[in-house]
Amino acid sequence: MNEKNYAQMTEQELREEIAKLKEKARKAEQLGIVNEFAVYERKAIMASAYLIDPKSIISGEIYRIDGAPGEFFKVEYLKGRFAWGYRLGGERYEEALPISILLPMKEGK
User: Fold this and answer.
1) DSSP three-state, residue 60
2) Predicted model pTM
């Protein structure tokens, strides 16, 4: 089977892929297969990044991190579907996060 990578998929194909990955993650979680669950979760996050316009993520802005309440991320620059920067507070080491887990500071924005 000739599989497309996420960049080649249409929005509909991406949404279907995300739904499949989330279902596989749910099943793995039910079976207690933690590492498999984590892999499917990460794949769904990456597929979701292709549904977001990278131009909507602005360098220098601070974002909330989905799934990490109370944690914030300052974007320094974008490379592909990743935002590079650092988490506020604690060690200020550079890391890359998929743009799909960055949420605007204000709700409903």
Assistant:
1) coil
2) 0.85
